[in-house]
Amino acid sequence: MDGQVRSNIHSGITVNIVLKEDQRTGKRTRGIVKDILTNSQKHPRGIKVRLEDGQIGRVQEIIKTV
Fold first, then answer.
1. InterPro entries this protein is in (predicted)?
2. Domains in the chain and their CATH numbers?
3. CA distance 31 to 49
């Protein structure tokens, strides 16, 4: 599924995100979505989320939905 579309993302799903400090390298971090921070319906670099462990980044890939 597409991490650029807000309707594909909701609390509890597992995603790969890119943290702000990892944007140059593209290193991905896996976690479970706690909050959706982007208000717009689409974003070209990915919807910004907060993971359950508090890390914030943009969704690159949706791994598993609930």
1. DUF2196 (IPR019240)
2. 6-62 (2.30.30)
3. 10
d(CA 34, CA 38): 13
What are the residues facing 37 on neighbouring strands?
Answer: none
Residues of the chain with pLDDT > 90, as a percent, come to: 92
Residue 52: both structure tokens together: 């359950």
The 10s digit of each residue's pLDDT in 41-58 is 999 999 999 999 999 999
Which residues, in sequence order, are bridge partners of residue 21? Answer: none
Going by C-alpha positions, the residue among 20, 15, 21 that lies closest to residue 2 is 15
Return the SS3 of 39: coil
CA distance 34 to 13: 9
